[in-house]
Amino acid sequence: MSDLQSLQIPAELLPSDGRFGSGPSRIRSAQISALAEAGAHVLGTSHRQAPVKDLVRRVRAGLTELFSLPAGYEVVLGNGGSTAFWDVAAFGLVRERAQHVVLGEFSSKFAAETRGAPHLDEPLVLAAEPGTRTLPAADPEVDVYAYPHNETSTGVMLPVRRPEGATEDQLVLVDATSAAGGVAVDIAQTDAYYFAPQKAFGSDGGLWLSVLSPAAIARAEELASSDRWIPEFLSLTTAVANSRKDQTLNTPAVATLLLMAEQIEWMLGQGGLAWADERTRTTSSLLYDWAERRAETTPYVADPAARSQVVATIDVDEAIDASQITALLRAHGIVDIEPYRKLGRNQLRIATFPSVPPEDVQALIAVLDHVLDAAG
To answer: Percent of the chain scored above 70 by pLDDT?
Structure first.
């Protein structure tokens, strides 16, 4: 392999924006401008007063429209990110035993939470080899089915649907952190479709948001009225009560809410979730088609039906050090395309969230062609 450290990438090949991270993700310049303009009126003010509550209302109303929520479904939010929601669910949604589909690092973490919870039975875990997928399966011994819409660490995507044969008393919890807002979904197939803002919604972390069904809210109320101890910060019923007032239990990151509200409204203005789904299909397909054309690259996820629309993982031939490629691109302003660290593969991981336009993906491909050609 040629030494790439001295290679220069022509400026005319570079994308207009070099941020392709899988989270934190690209934030559009229009969002930054809105933060600078509107932030002066809400930053540093009480989250119990109208300006910030109006901002929460914008987020909740925008998500209601974006996901075309069925009657009775509610948008609920709280502080702490999706990691905190795993604990919220372990306290407030899992009655006795959960079934977890584990496809990689992030889906395994939720399974570890319910396994470690002293008030719950040992979870049933359906695990797939990294880069492949398995589906939830109806089981009378569980009261919750938990699986990711998109496994961010590996770039594997699952269809969102209730397991055939599941009963009305079994809840479906879908971790949508890297899929929500970028992939079409039928929310009626879920009871908790939860996510954080730092992926498709082009914002910062620190919040969790969940679309809850009436059945999920009823389960939360059932468990809250039992003798189970639930910390207030992790109480789902507390989060529901506060969300209905367009607020959170404790002070939220107002800048995060403002960035997210702007992004949701931009998506709706472009055509909503159908537009976002088509865009991410287009941009991810550009990368997968390119990876299949070149001899040095291969889509990591072999099954095309399981490949993510929003996080494309591409293996690089072992004769070429992918870390040298990512270091060279970083020096030229193209950042965060390294593989997930714990996966340990010679790989590129490239996000194609809605904020990433096709022309920037095409430019990235041109840059990678230039580098791989030079690598020999």
So the answer is: 99
